[in-house]
Amino acid sequence: MLNSEIKEEMKKIAVKNAIEYGKARQSAVISKILSKFPDLKANMKQLSEEAAEIVDRINSTDRRQLENDAERYAEEFKREDADRAERSAQHKFELEGADIGRFVTRFPPEPNGYMQIGHAKAAWIEREFTDKYKGRMALYFDDTNPEKEKQEFVDAIRRDMKWLGIAYDTEYFSSDNIDIMYSYAEKLIEGGKAYVCSCTADKIKEGRMQGTRCVHKRQKIEKNIKLWREMLNSNGGAEGMILRLNADLKDDNTTMRDPTLFRVKEGMHYRQGTKYSVWPTYFFNTPIVDSIKGITDVIRSKEFELVDELYFYILDCLGLRKPRVHSIARLEIKDNLTSKRKINDLIARGLLWGYDDPRLVTIAGLRRRGILPAAIKSFVMRFGMSKNDSEVSIEMLLAENRKLIDAISKHMFFVEKPVKVVVQGIPEDMRDIKIKLHPGTGMGYRRYRLSNTFFINMYDASKLTKGAQIRLKDAFSIVVRYLDGNQITAEYIKDGSGNDSAKVQWVNEGNYMACKIYEIKDLLAGDEFNSSSMIVKEGYIESHAESLDVGEVVQLERTGYFKLDNKDGFAFISL
Predict the structure, then answer these.
(1) 434 and 502 in contact (C-beta within 8 Å)?
(2) What dihedral do alpha carbons 519, 521, 523, 527 form, nearest 10°?
(3) Is the pLDDT of residue 88 over 80?
(4) Longest CA pairwise span in the chain (Å)
(5) Contact of 473 with 415, CB cutoff 8 Å
């Protein structure tokens, strides 16, 4: 039985989770309670049931009562947040048991999609430990699902790793080790530790939930070996047959309830072609590949903690060396997506441009948006080896990026919804103008020959009245003489006059071009796609923009930082 202290702690976690995210999640409650009471892993069934009951109760509570409950825990929440901040600040970047010169780790993406910022966190941490312990790091493609994996994704992951600046010492693929996996599978069968099952998926799920075994679990070893070899030699004709671990269907850890080790998947594999039709699952493949490849330390998301028992059990059954496994918190960006399935759905519906859409936190999307690799590293490394769940605003990443780009970004003027301003009386010696490309660095100047016709932002124009004085930034001041519909007539004011007037951005006739800017907002509104996640604005930008390189970042004054995405129509994306 769970005691009252643990139940109260679970309630407190659920309340805070509901207050912060609008709804409590069972997985968050279990994760946090396990980090506080790790011995509860031995009683996962009861823990899961209690967590489900508490979460349901909290989520059915009205908001006012929820806030009253939260008030009761206010001081505790405050202390916990302070302790967490202190622990984070004092975090020692080290791994228990790791030795200098005898450290080997791997970064294991599945090539079924593009890298995202959570992957970058794991890869950077692994690289940092590799350097710290003077070890080796592998790029390991976990590619045993021919239905979803593509060479396109392998190439994209390699490209993203190179762009991020994350070096690795070697590279290997799960699918190159299938024959080895087959021999280890047969060893399990011969030891009575695995059996062939042909039950339906629903039947298997029911048996695992209820802890009841199917008829195949009673099969003799000889029959399982015969069926296994039939699977291997059927050329896909054994559809519906799987190899399952022969463990304990009543284990409190449901991961241990006879999981699938191999399944039949027909079709073309991007690397192996049609050579294989029986493929290992992650549960079987990963521990074996880690062991035979000499991995000493595995660093992975704590969502796999319940799988650790299975990971080590398989290695014990096969008599293989066991790496050390270290858990870190998963990194989530608030109001964004990392689910490949959901991203693919939005792309298919035409709501996203692709995996490099700048609204996404894929590495390709961040690169297209203008986020620098150094900013990504600084951002993800601040979370270190913490096991506290992180769902943070992307603004934290953008702030890191702004620190890096501020000193190197050229400044320019952008005018949205342009309004014409005709200025009379401009002296000849004021028509040749040069403006600094950056107010604080030696980037040089942009130079223009001015005509009498300017364009200013409609917002600025809407505030003008007859007789008002404004300063065309970095040029000179003018006074409004007439307002006639969509045109303003103004007069030059002698240099030195009107310097305290409001400053406005401008472009000059003959020295501008049309452009678009894409302002990026949160991808999601709640759990739904945010139809306002990308706002397109049209206007004019200074003609000096023609000298920019695609990918270059500029600061459009009073508007923000933008990256030149392409020169076809001069499209800029906000940072």
Answers:
(1) no
(2) -150
(3) no
(4) 102
(5) no
Helix, strand, coil shares, percent, the chain, to 5:
40, 25, 35
pTM for the full predicted model: 0.81
Sign, CA dihedral 517-520-523-528, equals negative
- 3-class state of residue 445 by DSSP: strand
314 closest CA partner among 185, 216, 172, 223: 185
- Fold classification of 104-109+117-327 is Rossmann fold (3.40.50)
Determine the Cα–Cα distance for residues 537 and 203; give it in Å rounded to an integer: 55
CA distance 470 to 488: 12
Q: What's the CA gap between 99 and 97, in Å, rounded? A: 6
Contacts of 241 (CB under 8 A, 6+ apart): 196, 197, 198, 227, 230, 231, 264
Mean pLDDT of 279-296: 97
Q: What gap in Å lies between CA 108 and CA 204, rounded to an integer?
A: 29
Q: Three-state SS for 148?
A: coil
Confidence of residue 89 (pLDDT cuts 50, 70, 90): very low
Distances (CA, A) of 394 to 17, 135, 169, 569: 20, 33, 31, 28
Structural contact between residues 373 and 127, judged by C-beta atoms closer than 8 angstroms = no
Give per-residue pLDDT as tens, 175-215.
999 999 999 999 999 999 999 999 999 999 999 999 999 99
**Are 569 and 518 a contacting pair, CB within 8 Å?**
no
In a 3-state reduction of DSSP, which class is residue 544? helix
What residues does each domain of the chain span? 4-89, 104-109+117-327, 332-407, 411-574
At the second CATH level, the architecture of 411-574 is: Beta Barrel (2.40)
Do 217 and 247 form a contact (C-beta atoms < 8 A)?
no
Q: Round the CA-based radius of gyration of the chain to a whole number and report it.
A: 31
Query: Could you give the CA distance from residue 335 to residue 236 in angstroms, rounded to a whole number?
Result: 42
Rounding to the nearest 10 degrees, give the CA dihedral for residues 491, 496, 498, 499.
130
User: What sign does the dihedral 302-395-162-157 (CA atoms) show?
Assistant: positive
Q: What are the backbone dihedrals phi and psi of residue 480, each rounded to the nearest 5 degrees, phi first?
A: -75, 130
Amino acid present at 415: V
Span 332-407 CATH architecture: Orthogonal Bundle (1.10)
DSSP character string of 255-300 = GGSS-EEEEE--S-BTTTBTS-SEEE-HHHHHHHHHHHTT--EEEE
How many Å apart are CA 544 and CA 135, to the nearest integer?
Answer: 49
Q: Take residue 245 and report the two structure tokens written for it.
A: 């671990």
Contact yes or no for 371/117 (Cβ under 8 A): no
Q: What is the pLDDT of residues 346-356, one digit of tens each?
A: 999 999 999 99
455: amino acid identity, one letter: F
d(CA 62, CA 470): 53
The 8-class DSSP code of residue 491 comes to E
Q: For the stretch 88-123, what's the b/e string if a residue is b when 16 or more beta carbons lie within 10 angstroms of its beta carbon? A: eeeeeeebeebeeeebbbbbbbbbbbbbbbbbbbbb
